[in-house]
Write a structure and sequence with these properties.
The chain folds into three domains: 91 residues, Pseudouridine synthase, CATH 3.30.2350; 133 residues, Pseudouridine synthase (2-Layer Sandwich), CATH 3.30.2350; 57 residues, PUA domain (Archaeosine Trna-guanine Transglycosylase, Chain: A, domain 4). The protein is built from eight helices and 18 strands. The strands form four sheets. Strands 1, 2, 3, 4, 7, 10, 11, 12, 13 and 14 form a ten-stranded mixed sheet that branches. The chain has a four-stranded mixed sheet with strand order 15-16-17-18. It is globular, with a radius of gyration of 22 Å.
């Protein structure tokens, strides 16, 4: 049964998640402010991390999987010479080692080893599940289980700052990349160990940080009314800026909305497309069939 005062609202909110919040806690706070019936996030950020957390409200949740699979960009700071149980500043110190003189060239050579397709072993302190139990709960009990390495792709990894026993990097990577594991592996490559002290996500393709909104700003808008809140929502089709467009009208629009493939003159010959009724109404996403018809795959009605 729908909670009282909930409403149908649809769109994408680019939240600047604060440090210390879980992604789900941030999602629930936003859902309450918007009085939204349905909402979901597009891949969680650790409580230690801040930055871009796209939230999908209403019908836009049907596209959340596309953002979950998107490339992400992070800026992170590593403390050199110290490894921790969690790979970040919240864990207990495992080993402390001296940090010898490091030049930018040495660090950049090490960074190149972690560019491209690489293997990562998921950390015990992660939300991955074993027999229905999150690994981090097992880790807190002192239980360690075998994890299968998996391939991720690092598109770009650049050194921004080096000094004072710390280094700051910018990383663009595929989904499923653990920045804490990358930092720990980089520390081993430098011979001193490392852990993440700050982590901020600045992009989830196709979105970047420029249109992020803080929780504080949302609360201020909530005092002004729901219209002020809705003003910062992006339309659902903003998640698909580079997809080809197919526009339908009349009977074609009717049958498409009934879930039936239709023939659309001058439509693309293959691939996935954005579907519109007329010039403005976004219907969802479709796929071009082998016979040239456009089949609806996920409709936002």
């Amino acid at each position: 049964m729908t909670a009282p005062n909930r409403r149908s609202v649809s769109g994408v909110l680019l939240l600047d998640k604060p440090v210390g919040w879980t992604s789900n806690a941030a999602l629930q706070a936003v859902k309450r402010l918007y009085r939204a019936r349905k909402a979901g996030h597009t891949g969680s950020l650790d409580p230690l991390a801040s930055g871009l957390l796209p939230l999908c409200l209403g019908e836009a949740t049907k596209l959340s999987g596309l953002l979950l699979n998107a490339d992400k960009t992070y800026r992170f700071t590593c403390r050199l010479g110290v490894t921790t149980t969690t790979g970040d500043a919240e864990g207990e110190i495992l080993v402390t080692r001296p940090v010898g003189p490091l030049s930018r060239e040495q660090v950049e050579i090490a960074l190149r080893r972690f560019t491209g397709a690489i293997q990562q072993t998921p950390p015990m302190y992660s939300a991955l599940k074993r027999d229905g139990q999150p690994l981090y709960k097992l880790a807190r009990k002192g239980i360690e289980v075998e994890r299968v390495p998996r391939e991720v792709t690092v598109r770009d990894l650049r050194l921004l700052e080096l000094g004072g026993g710390e280094l700051e990097c910018e990383l663009r990577c595929s989904k499923g990349t653990y920045v804490r594991v990358l930092a720990a592996d980089l520390g081993e490559a430098l011979g001193c160990g490392a852990h993440v002290t700050t982590l901020r996500r600045i992009a989830v393709e196709p979105y970047d940080a420029r249109r992020m909104v803080t929780l504080e700003a949302l609360r201020t808008r909530a005092e002004q009314g729901l219209t002020a809140l809705d003003a910062v929502l992006l339309p659902a089709d903003s998640a698909l800026p580079d997809w080809p467009v197919v526009r339908v009208r009349g009977d074609a629009a009717f049958y498409l909305c009934q879930g039936q493939p239709v023939l659309v003159p001058r439509a693309p010959t293959q691939g996935w497309v954005r579907l519109y009724e007329g010039e403005e109404r976004f219907l969802g996403i479709g796929e071009i069939l082998d016979d040239g018809r456009v089949a609806p795959r996920r409709l936002l009605l």
